[in-house]
Amino acid sequence: MTPSLHDVTRGRLLYGGDHNPEQWPEEVWHEDVALMREAGVNLVTVGVFSWARLEPRPGAREFDWLDRVLDLLHGAGIVAHDATPTASPPPWMGARLPETLPRDETGATVWYGSRNHFCASSPVYREYALRIAADLADRYGDHRYAVADFDTDHAGAWGSTAREVAERIGREVVDADPHYLLLLVGVNDVVRGADSAEVLERTRDIVAAARLARGDIRVVLGEIPPVWGTEDDQTVNAAIGEYNAALPALADRLTRADSPVVVARTAADYAPADDNWDEVHPNARGEVKIAAAFADTLADPLGLGRPYPRPLPDVEVGPTAAPGGLRVERTADGARVSWDGVPGATRYEVFGRRVDPDPEERASRGDVAAAADGGTAHEVAGLFAGAVYEFEVRAFKGQDPGPLSAPVRVELADDPPPAPEAVRAGDGALSWEAAPGATHYAVWRRPLECPTLDPGDCAPADAGPVGADTGWQTVAVVRDATRLEIGPEQANHEFAVRSHRDYLEGGFSERVVYRAAD
Hints:
Shape: elongated
Distance between the termini: 98 Å
CATH superfamily of the largest domain: SGNH hydrolase
CATH topology of the largest domain: Rossmann fold
Structural class: alpha+beta
CATH class of the largest domain: Alpha Beta
CATH architecture of the largest domain: 3-Layer(aba) Sandwich
Number of strands: 22
Number of helices: 12
Number of domains: 4
Low-confidence stretches: 142-155
Mean pLDDT: 89
Strand content: 15-25%
Protein backbone atom coordinates (compact mmCIF):
# COMPACT_ATOMS: atom_id res chain seq x y z
CA MET A 1 0.00 0.00 0.00
CA THR A 2 1.24 3.50 -0.79
CA PRO A 3 2.46 5.20 2.42
CA SER A 4 0.39 8.20 3.42
CA LEU A 5 1.74 11.58 4.41
CA HIS A 6 0.29 10.89 7.84
CA ASP A 7 2.29 7.64 8.04
CA VAL A 8 5.63 9.04 6.95
CA THR A 9 5.48 12.18 9.08
CA ARG A 10 4.22 10.70 12.37
CA GLY A 11 6.70 12.09 14.83
CA ARG A 12 9.08 13.27 12.09
CA LEU A 13 9.77 16.27 9.89
CA LEU A 14 9.25 16.21 6.15
CA TYR A 15 12.64 15.92 4.48
CA GLY A 16 13.33 15.87 0.76
CA GLY A 17 13.34 17.96 -2.40
CA ASP A 18 12.98 17.88 -6.17
CA HIS A 19 13.74 14.59 -7.92
CA ASN A 20 14.34 14.70 -11.70
CA PRO A 21 14.96 11.10 -12.75
CA GLU A 22 14.03 11.81 -16.38
CA GLN A 23 17.33 13.68 -16.68
CA TRP A 24 19.34 10.57 -15.78
CA PRO A 25 19.67 7.07 -17.23
CA GLU A 26 17.13 4.66 -15.78
CA GLU A 27 19.99 2.41 -14.65
CA VAL A 28 20.84 4.82 -11.81
CA TRP A 29 17.27 5.28 -10.49
CA HIS A 30 17.51 2.39 -8.02
CA GLU A 31 20.78 3.73 -6.66
CA ASP A 32 19.25 7.21 -6.27
CA VAL A 33 16.33 5.85 -4.26
CA ALA A 34 18.61 3.75 -2.09
CA LEU A 35 20.72 6.82 -1.29
CA MET A 36 17.54 8.77 -0.49
CA ARG A 37 16.47 6.13 2.00
CA GLU A 38 19.93 6.11 3.57
CA ALA A 39 19.73 9.91 3.93
CA GLY A 40 16.28 9.73 5.54
CA VAL A 41 14.40 11.36 2.65
CA ASN A 42 10.62 10.80 3.03
CA LEU A 43 9.14 13.19 0.43
CA VAL A 44 10.19 14.16 -3.11
CA THR A 45 8.66 16.20 -5.90
CA VAL A 46 8.76 14.65 -9.37
CA GLY A 47 7.90 15.81 -12.87
CA VAL A 48 8.62 19.52 -12.45
CA PHE A 49 10.52 19.84 -15.75
CA SER A 50 9.26 16.71 -17.49
CA TRP A 51 6.74 18.10 -19.98
CA ALA A 52 8.91 17.31 -23.00
CA ARG A 53 9.25 13.71 -21.79
CA LEU A 54 5.56 13.37 -20.97
CA GLU A 55 4.36 14.96 -24.26
CA PRO A 56 7.14 14.47 -26.84
CA ARG A 57 4.74 15.37 -29.66
CA PRO A 58 1.52 17.43 -29.67
CA GLY A 59 -1.17 15.37 -27.97
CA ALA A 60 1.09 12.35 -27.36
CA ARG A 61 1.37 10.96 -23.82
CA GLU A 62 4.25 8.90 -22.45
CA PHE A 63 3.58 8.07 -18.80
CA ASP A 64 5.21 4.64 -18.56
CA TRP A 65 8.52 5.99 -17.29
CA LEU A 66 6.76 8.07 -14.61
CA ASP A 67 4.78 4.97 -13.58
CA ARG A 68 8.08 3.20 -12.94
CA VAL A 69 9.49 6.15 -10.99
CA LEU A 70 6.46 6.39 -8.72
CA ASP A 71 6.36 2.64 -8.13
CA LEU A 72 10.04 2.71 -7.20
CA LEU A 73 9.56 5.57 -4.72
CA HIS A 74 6.45 4.07 -3.17
CA GLY A 75 8.19 0.74 -2.76
CA ALA A 76 10.90 2.54 -0.80
CA GLY A 77 8.40 4.26 1.49
CA ILE A 78 8.97 7.70 -0.03
CA VAL A 79 5.95 9.87 -0.72
CA ALA A 80 5.95 11.38 -4.21
CA HIS A 81 4.48 14.81 -4.86
CA ASP A 82 3.59 14.69 -8.57
CA ALA A 83 4.05 18.24 -9.87
CA THR A 84 2.54 19.79 -12.95
CA PRO A 85 5.29 20.28 -15.58
CA THR A 86 3.91 23.54 -16.93
CA ALA A 87 6.96 25.69 -16.02
CA SER A 88 8.95 24.05 -18.81
CA PRO A 89 6.96 23.56 -22.05
CA PRO A 90 8.44 21.17 -24.62
CA PRO A 91 10.61 22.72 -27.36
CA TRP A 92 8.15 21.76 -30.10
CA MET A 93 5.56 24.11 -28.56
CA GLY A 94 7.72 27.19 -28.93
CA ALA A 95 8.85 26.15 -32.39
CA ARG A 96 5.35 25.45 -33.72
CA LEU A 97 3.40 27.91 -31.62
CA PRO A 98 5.55 31.02 -31.03
CA GLU A 99 2.54 32.82 -29.54
CA THR A 100 3.11 30.70 -26.41
CA LEU A 101 6.53 32.32 -25.81
CA PRO A 102 7.07 35.40 -23.62
CA ARG A 103 8.33 38.76 -24.80
CA ASP A 104 10.63 41.16 -22.99
CA GLU A 105 10.09 44.86 -22.46
CA THR A 106 11.41 45.62 -25.97
CA GLY A 107 8.95 43.21 -27.59
CA ALA A 108 11.61 40.64 -28.45
CA THR A 109 10.56 37.00 -28.16
CA VAL A 110 12.28 35.00 -25.42
CA TRP A 111 12.90 31.68 -27.13
CA TYR A 112 12.82 28.24 -25.58
CA GLY A 113 15.95 26.77 -24.05
CA SER A 114 15.59 27.72 -20.39
CA ARG A 115 12.95 27.38 -17.74
CA ASN A 116 9.78 29.50 -17.68
CA HIS A 117 9.84 30.01 -21.45
CA PHE A 118 6.11 30.55 -21.67
CA CYS A 119 3.60 33.38 -21.84
CA ALA A 120 1.07 32.83 -19.07
CA SER A 121 -1.54 34.97 -20.84
CA SER A 122 -1.37 32.95 -24.07
CA PRO A 123 -4.67 31.07 -24.54
CA VAL A 124 -2.85 28.39 -26.54
CA TYR A 125 -0.28 27.80 -23.79
CA ARG A 126 -3.00 27.71 -21.14
CA GLU A 127 -5.01 25.18 -23.15
CA TYR A 128 -2.02 22.83 -23.51
CA ALA A 129 -1.09 23.32 -19.84
CA LEU A 130 -4.60 22.51 -18.70
CA ARG A 131 -4.65 19.35 -20.80
CA ILE A 132 -1.36 17.92 -19.51
CA ALA A 133 -2.27 18.78 -15.91
CA ALA A 134 -5.71 17.19 -16.27
CA ASP A 135 -4.23 14.04 -17.82
CA LEU A 136 -1.72 13.74 -14.97
CA ALA A 137 -4.52 14.15 -12.43
CA ASP A 138 -6.66 11.56 -14.20
CA ARG A 139 -3.83 9.04 -14.29
CA TYR A 140 -2.35 9.50 -10.81
CA GLY A 141 -4.85 11.46 -8.73
CA ASP A 142 -6.94 8.52 -7.60
CA HIS A 143 -4.17 6.31 -6.21
CA ARG A 144 -1.02 8.40 -6.00
CA TYR A 145 -2.32 11.20 -3.82
CA ALA A 146 0.15 12.43 -1.21
CA VAL A 147 -2.16 11.27 1.58
CA ALA A 148 -3.11 7.93 0.10
CA ASP A 149 -5.93 7.21 2.54
CA PHE A 150 -7.55 10.61 1.95
CA ASP A 151 -8.92 10.90 -1.57
CA THR A 152 -8.55 13.73 -4.03
CA ASP A 153 -12.00 15.07 -3.27
CA HIS A 154 -10.98 15.34 0.39
CA ALA A 155 -13.28 12.48 1.32
CA GLY A 156 -16.23 14.26 -0.24
CA ALA A 157 -19.08 11.90 -1.01
CA TRP A 158 -21.26 13.46 -3.70
CA GLY A 159 -24.74 11.98 -3.80
CA SER A 160 -24.54 10.37 -0.37
CA THR A 161 -27.34 10.54 2.16
CA ALA A 162 -26.71 11.16 5.84
CA ARG A 163 -27.59 7.52 6.54
CA GLU A 164 -24.90 6.36 4.08
CA VAL A 165 -22.33 8.66 5.66
CA ALA A 166 -23.23 7.33 9.12
CA GLU A 167 -22.63 3.78 7.93
CA ARG A 168 -19.07 4.43 6.74
CA ILE A 169 -17.78 7.37 8.78
CA GLY A 170 -16.36 5.10 11.49
CA ARG A 171 -14.13 3.27 9.00
CA GLU A 172 -12.97 6.53 7.46
CA VAL A 173 -12.04 8.00 10.85
CA VAL A 174 -10.13 4.83 11.73
CA ASP A 175 -8.25 5.01 8.43
CA ALA A 176 -7.41 8.74 8.46
CA ASP A 177 -7.32 9.36 12.26
CA PRO A 178 -8.31 13.04 11.91
CA HIS A 179 -8.35 15.55 14.76
CA TYR A 180 -11.26 17.44 13.18
CA LEU A 181 -14.37 16.30 11.33
CA LEU A 182 -16.05 18.90 9.09
CA LEU A 183 -19.50 17.65 8.22
CA LEU A 184 -21.96 19.03 5.69
CA VAL A 185 -24.73 16.49 5.06
CA GLY A 186 -28.45 16.33 4.50
CA VAL A 187 -29.19 18.06 1.22
CA ASN A 188 -29.65 14.76 -0.64
CA ASP A 189 -31.91 13.48 2.11
CA VAL A 190 -34.13 16.56 2.05
CA VAL A 191 -34.33 16.70 -1.76
CA ARG A 192 -35.46 13.06 -1.70
CA GLY A 193 -38.21 13.80 0.79
CA ALA A 194 -36.70 13.37 4.27
CA ASP A 195 -37.84 15.81 6.97
CA SER A 196 -35.54 17.81 9.21
CA ALA A 197 -36.03 15.53 12.23
CA GLU A 198 -34.77 12.51 10.29
CA VAL A 199 -31.70 14.35 9.02
CA LEU A 200 -30.92 15.63 12.52
CA GLU A 201 -31.09 12.07 13.84
CA ARG A 202 -28.71 10.85 11.13
CA THR A 203 -26.34 13.71 11.88
CA ARG A 204 -26.28 12.59 15.52
CA ASP A 205 -25.54 9.04 14.31
CA ILE A 206 -22.58 10.29 12.26
CA VAL A 207 -21.05 12.06 15.26
CA ALA A 208 -21.57 8.99 17.46
CA ALA A 209 -19.94 6.67 14.89
CA ALA A 210 -16.98 9.04 14.47
CA ARG A 211 -16.44 9.14 18.24
CA LEU A 212 -16.35 5.36 18.43
CA ALA A 213 -13.33 5.53 16.15
CA ARG A 214 -11.73 8.51 17.89
CA GLY A 215 -13.19 9.73 21.15
CA ASP A 216 -11.61 13.18 21.17
CA ILE A 217 -12.51 14.17 17.64
CA ARG A 218 -13.64 17.78 17.22
CA VAL A 219 -16.72 18.21 15.02
CA VAL A 220 -17.92 21.15 12.93
CA LEU A 221 -21.48 20.78 11.60
CA GLY A 222 -22.24 22.83 8.51
CA GLU A 223 -25.65 24.27 7.76
CA ILE A 224 -27.30 23.00 4.59
CA PRO A 225 -27.20 25.76 1.94
CA PRO A 226 -30.55 26.50 0.28
CA VAL A 227 -31.38 24.95 -3.10
CA TRP A 228 -32.69 26.45 -6.32
CA GLY A 229 -34.32 24.84 -9.33
CA THR A 230 -35.65 21.61 -7.79
CA GLU A 231 -39.19 20.43 -8.40
CA ASP A 232 -40.34 21.97 -5.11
CA ASP A 233 -37.90 24.58 -3.81
CA GLN A 234 -40.36 25.93 -1.25
CA THR A 235 -40.85 22.59 0.52
CA VAL A 236 -37.18 21.60 0.34
CA ASN A 237 -35.92 24.96 1.60
CA ALA A 238 -38.46 24.92 4.42
CA ALA A 239 -37.04 21.58 5.63
CA ILE A 240 -33.51 22.94 5.23
CA GLY A 241 -34.41 25.98 7.32
CA GLU A 242 -35.82 23.78 10.09
CA TYR A 243 -32.66 21.64 10.10
CA ASN A 244 -30.35 24.66 10.22
CA ALA A 245 -32.36 26.28 13.01
CA ALA A 246 -32.10 23.09 15.11
CA LEU A 247 -28.36 22.53 14.57
CA PRO A 248 -27.07 24.75 17.45
CA ALA A 249 -29.24 22.89 19.96
CA LEU A 250 -28.06 19.54 18.59
CA ALA A 251 -24.44 20.69 18.82
CA ASP A 252 -24.93 21.74 22.45
CA ARG A 253 -26.41 18.33 23.34
CA LEU A 254 -23.60 16.45 21.62
CA THR A 255 -20.72 18.57 22.94
CA ARG A 256 -18.31 16.95 25.42
CA ALA A 257 -15.30 18.42 27.13
CA ASP A 258 -12.92 16.31 25.05
CA SER A 259 -14.99 16.43 21.85
CA PRO A 260 -16.67 19.77 21.17
CA VAL A 261 -19.35 20.06 18.47
CA VAL A 262 -19.92 23.48 16.89
CA VAL A 263 -21.88 24.88 13.94
CA ALA A 264 -20.49 26.62 10.85
CA ARG A 265 -22.81 29.20 9.28
CA THR A 266 -22.41 27.79 5.78
CA ALA A 267 -25.91 28.89 4.73
CA ALA A 268 -25.41 32.52 5.71
CA ASP A 269 -25.40 34.88 2.70
CA TYR A 270 -25.65 31.87 0.38
CA ALA A 271 -27.58 32.63 -2.81
CA PRO A 272 -28.20 29.35 -4.65
CA ALA A 273 -29.16 31.03 -7.92
CA ASP A 274 -25.66 32.54 -8.02
CA ASP A 275 -23.65 30.13 -5.86
CA ASN A 276 -24.75 26.75 -7.30
CA TRP A 277 -23.88 25.35 -10.70
CA ASP A 278 -27.00 23.16 -10.64
CA GLU A 279 -29.90 22.69 -8.23
CA VAL A 280 -27.82 21.65 -5.20
CA HIS A 281 -24.08 21.67 -5.95
CA PRO A 282 -21.97 24.75 -5.19
CA ASN A 283 -19.90 26.40 -7.88
CA ALA A 284 -16.52 27.96 -7.12
CA ARG A 285 -18.19 31.01 -5.54
CA GLY A 286 -20.37 28.83 -3.35
CA GLU A 287 -17.40 26.65 -2.37
CA VAL A 288 -15.50 29.72 -1.20
CA LYS A 289 -18.45 30.80 0.96
CA ILE A 290 -18.74 27.31 2.49
CA ALA A 291 -14.98 27.01 3.05
CA ALA A 292 -14.86 30.48 4.62
CA ALA A 293 -17.64 29.58 7.06
CA PHE A 294 -15.79 26.42 8.14
CA ALA A 295 -12.53 28.35 8.49
CA ASP A 296 -14.25 30.98 10.65
CA THR A 297 -15.64 28.31 12.97
CA LEU A 298 -12.35 26.44 13.23
CA ALA A 299 -10.74 29.72 14.29
CA ASP A 300 -13.49 30.65 16.73
CA PRO A 301 -14.48 28.87 18.91
CA LEU A 302 -12.07 25.98 18.24
CA GLY A 303 -8.91 28.11 18.11
CA LEU A 304 -7.47 26.54 14.94
CA GLY A 305 -6.02 29.06 12.48
CA ARG A 306 -7.53 32.40 11.61
CA PRO A 307 -10.92 33.46 10.23
CA TYR A 308 -11.15 33.59 6.46
CA PRO A 309 -10.14 37.06 5.18
CA ARG A 310 -12.92 39.40 4.12
CA PRO A 311 -14.10 40.46 1.66
CA LEU A 312 -14.29 37.08 0.03
CA PRO A 313 -12.44 36.81 -3.29
CA ASP A 314 -14.40 37.34 -6.47
CA VAL A 315 -13.77 33.97 -8.10
CA GLU A 316 -14.62 32.90 -11.62
CA VAL A 317 -17.30 30.24 -12.00
CA GLY A 318 -17.88 27.78 -14.76
CA PRO A 319 -15.22 25.98 -16.78
CA THR A 320 -11.92 27.84 -16.82
CA ALA A 321 -10.93 26.78 -20.33
CA ALA A 322 -12.54 27.41 -23.69
CA PRO A 323 -13.25 24.49 -26.02
CA GLY A 324 -10.27 23.86 -28.28
CA GLY A 325 -9.74 22.16 -31.59
CA LEU A 326 -12.84 23.67 -33.17
CA ARG A 327 -13.59 22.13 -36.58
CA VAL A 328 -16.37 22.71 -39.12
CA GLU A 329 -17.30 20.28 -41.89
CA ARG A 330 -19.90 20.70 -44.63
CA THR A 331 -22.88 18.36 -44.46
CA ALA A 332 -25.81 17.82 -46.80
CA ASP A 333 -28.08 19.94 -44.59
CA GLY A 334 -25.62 22.50 -43.24
CA ALA A 335 -22.44 22.03 -41.21
CA ARG A 336 -21.06 19.83 -38.43
CA VAL A 337 -19.23 21.72 -35.68
CA SER A 338 -16.97 19.58 -33.47
CA TRP A 339 -14.51 20.38 -30.69
CA ASP A 340 -12.37 18.94 -27.91
CA GLY A 341 -14.13 18.62 -24.58
CA VAL A 342 -13.43 20.82 -21.56
CA PRO A 343 -12.82 19.16 -18.16
CA GLY A 344 -15.77 19.67 -15.83
CA ALA A 345 -18.18 20.85 -18.52
CA THR A 346 -21.72 19.47 -18.39
CA ARG A 347 -22.95 21.06 -21.61
CA TYR A 348 -21.93 23.30 -24.48
CA GLU A 349 -23.65 26.05 -26.42
CA VAL A 350 -22.84 26.54 -30.10
CA PHE A 351 -23.00 30.05 -31.53
CA GLY A 352 -22.98 31.00 -35.18
CA ARG A 353 -23.45 33.92 -37.52
CA ARG A 354 -23.27 34.67 -41.21
CA VAL A 355 -20.37 37.01 -41.92
CA ASP A 356 -20.70 37.35 -45.71
CA PRO A 357 -22.90 38.31 -47.45
CA ASP A 358 -25.52 40.12 -45.35
CA PRO A 359 -23.67 39.91 -41.99
CA GLU A 360 -25.85 38.99 -39.03
CA GLU A 361 -25.53 39.06 -35.25
CA ARG A 362 -24.16 36.04 -33.40
CA ALA A 363 -26.95 33.76 -32.19
CA SER A 364 -27.24 30.45 -30.39
CA ARG A 365 -27.35 27.45 -32.70
CA GLY A 366 -28.13 24.88 -30.03
CA ASP A 367 -27.19 23.27 -26.71
CA VAL A 368 -25.23 20.02 -26.56
CA ALA A 369 -24.79 17.77 -23.53
CA ALA A 370 -21.17 16.91 -22.73
CA ALA A 371 -20.11 13.59 -24.21
CA ALA A 372 -18.71 10.83 -22.02
CA ASP A 373 -15.41 10.85 -23.93
CA GLY A 374 -14.95 14.60 -23.44
CA GLY A 375 -15.33 15.60 -27.08
CA THR A 376 -18.59 16.40 -28.79
CA ALA A 377 -20.18 17.81 -31.92
CA HIS A 378 -23.34 19.53 -33.17
CA GLU A 379 -25.14 19.55 -36.50
CA VAL A 380 -26.20 23.04 -37.62
CA ALA A 381 -28.95 23.19 -40.23
CA GLY A 382 -30.58 26.06 -42.08
CA LEU A 383 -27.38 27.44 -43.60
CA PHE A 384 -27.25 29.09 -47.01
CA ALA A 385 -25.02 27.92 -49.83
CA GLY A 386 -22.51 30.49 -51.02
CA ALA A 387 -22.27 32.19 -47.60
CA VAL A 388 -19.42 32.36 -45.08
CA TYR A 389 -20.30 31.41 -41.50
CA GLU A 390 -18.44 31.82 -38.22
CA PHE A 391 -18.90 29.48 -35.26
CA GLU A 392 -17.88 29.61 -31.59
CA VAL A 393 -18.52 27.24 -28.69
CA ARG A 394 -18.86 27.96 -24.98
CA ALA A 395 -18.59 25.33 -22.22
CA PHE A 396 -20.93 25.39 -19.24
CA LYS A 397 -20.90 23.67 -15.90
CA GLY A 398 -24.61 23.62 -15.17
CA GLN A 399 -25.70 27.22 -15.52
CA ASP A 400 -22.21 28.72 -15.17
CA PRO A 401 -20.52 29.69 -18.46
CA GLY A 402 -16.86 29.44 -19.37
CA PRO A 403 -14.99 31.49 -21.99
CA LEU A 404 -15.86 31.37 -25.67
CA SER A 405 -13.69 29.35 -28.00
CA ALA A 406 -11.68 30.95 -30.75
CA PRO A 407 -13.94 31.44 -33.81
CA VAL A 408 -13.67 29.26 -36.87
CA ARG A 409 -15.11 30.10 -40.31
CA VAL A 410 -16.39 27.98 -43.14
CA GLU A 411 -17.49 28.91 -46.66
CA LEU A 412 -20.33 26.84 -48.06
CA ALA A 413 -18.96 26.85 -51.58
CA ASP A 414 -21.25 24.38 -53.34
CA ASP A 415 -21.56 23.99 -57.10
CA PRO A 416 -24.01 26.52 -58.53
CA PRO A 417 -27.27 25.19 -60.03
CA PRO A 418 -27.58 24.86 -63.79
CA ALA A 419 -29.50 27.33 -65.90
CA PRO A 420 -33.28 26.85 -66.23
CA GLU A 421 -34.38 25.26 -69.46
CA ALA A 422 -37.47 25.35 -71.68
CA VAL A 423 -38.29 28.99 -70.95
CA ARG A 424 -41.36 30.22 -72.79
CA ALA A 425 -43.53 33.34 -72.74
CA GLY A 426 -47.18 33.19 -73.71
CA ASP A 427 -50.75 33.06 -72.48
CA GLY A 428 -50.00 35.76 -69.93
CA ALA A 429 -47.21 33.88 -68.19
CA LEU A 430 -43.48 33.21 -68.20
CA SER A 431 -42.64 29.58 -67.40
CA TRP A 432 -39.58 27.30 -67.26
CA GLU A 433 -38.42 23.91 -66.11
CA ALA A 434 -36.99 23.57 -62.59
CA ALA A 435 -33.20 23.59 -62.32
CA PRO A 436 -31.80 20.82 -60.07
CA GLY A 437 -30.67 22.21 -56.71
CA ALA A 438 -32.12 25.68 -57.24
CA THR A 439 -33.85 27.35 -54.28
CA HIS A 440 -35.25 30.33 -56.21
CA TYR A 441 -35.15 32.12 -59.54
CA ALA A 442 -34.50 35.73 -60.56
CA VAL A 443 -36.49 36.98 -63.56
CA TRP A 444 -34.66 39.58 -65.66
CA ARG A 445 -36.26 41.86 -68.27
CA ARG A 446 -35.14 44.32 -70.95
CA PRO A 447 -37.32 46.34 -73.36
CA LEU A 448 -37.06 45.61 -77.03
CA GLU A 449 -35.75 48.32 -79.33
CA CYS A 450 -38.53 49.66 -81.58
CA PRO A 451 -37.29 51.86 -84.49
CA THR A 452 -40.89 52.54 -85.60
CA LEU A 453 -44.33 52.64 -84.03
CA ASP A 454 -45.05 49.23 -85.50
CA PRO A 455 -44.61 46.61 -82.70
CA GLY A 456 -43.61 44.12 -85.35
CA ASP A 457 -40.42 46.09 -85.93
CA CYS A 458 -39.35 45.71 -82.29
CA ALA A 459 -36.30 43.44 -81.68
CA PRO A 460 -33.63 42.72 -79.01
CA ALA A 461 -30.92 45.36 -78.84
CA ASP A 462 -28.14 42.78 -79.01
CA ALA A 463 -27.29 39.16 -78.30
CA GLY A 464 -24.78 39.94 -75.53
CA PRO A 465 -24.82 38.64 -71.96
CA VAL A 466 -27.62 39.45 -69.56
CA GLY A 467 -26.61 42.05 -67.00
CA ALA A 468 -27.43 45.39 -65.45
CA ASP A 469 -24.75 47.08 -67.54
CA THR A 470 -26.54 46.07 -70.75
CA GLY A 471 -29.96 47.47 -69.82
CA TRP A 472 -31.37 44.42 -68.04
CA GLN A 473 -33.01 44.62 -64.63
CA THR A 474 -34.39 42.14 -62.12
CA VAL A 475 -38.18 42.36 -61.96
CA ALA A 476 -39.12 39.38 -59.76
CA VAL A 477 -37.78 36.65 -57.49
CA VAL A 478 -39.74 33.41 -57.68
CA ARG A 479 -39.63 30.76 -54.93
CA ASP A 480 -41.39 27.42 -54.82
CA ALA A 481 -42.65 27.86 -58.39
CA THR A 482 -41.49 27.89 -62.04
CA ARG A 483 -44.02 30.35 -63.40
CA LEU A 484 -44.57 34.11 -63.30
CA GLU A 485 -47.72 35.91 -64.44
CA ILE A 486 -47.00 38.68 -66.96
CA GLY A 487 -49.59 41.16 -68.25
CA PRO A 488 -49.98 43.30 -71.38
CA GLU A 489 -47.72 45.99 -69.90
CA GLN A 490 -44.84 43.50 -70.16
CA ALA A 491 -45.28 43.29 -73.93
CA ASN A 492 -42.37 44.14 -76.19
CA HIS A 493 -39.78 42.94 -73.67
CA GLU A 494 -37.30 40.10 -73.65
CA PHE A 495 -36.92 37.90 -70.57
CA ALA A 496 -34.27 35.62 -69.04
CA VAL A 497 -34.42 33.50 -65.90
CA ARG A 498 -31.46 32.87 -63.61
CA SER A 499 -31.30 29.98 -61.10
CA HIS A 500 -29.97 30.48 -57.57
CA ARG A 501 -29.07 28.20 -54.69
CA ASP A 502 -29.31 30.53 -51.72
CA TYR A 503 -26.42 32.97 -52.32
CA LEU A 504 -24.92 31.00 -55.20
CA GLU A 505 -25.76 32.41 -58.64
CA GLY A 506 -26.46 29.81 -61.31
CA GLY A 507 -26.72 30.15 -65.05
CA PHE A 508 -29.02 32.28 -67.20
CA SER A 509 -31.63 30.66 -69.37
CA GLU A 510 -31.99 31.31 -73.06
CA ARG A 511 -33.72 34.65 -73.69
CA VAL A 512 -37.32 34.77 -74.86
CA VAL A 513 -39.29 37.65 -76.39
CA TYR A 514 -42.81 38.55 -75.25
CA ARG A 515 -44.93 40.55 -77.69
CA ALA A 516 -48.42 41.95 -77.41
CA ALA A 517 -49.68 39.25 -79.73
CA ASP A 518 -48.46 36.58 -77.33
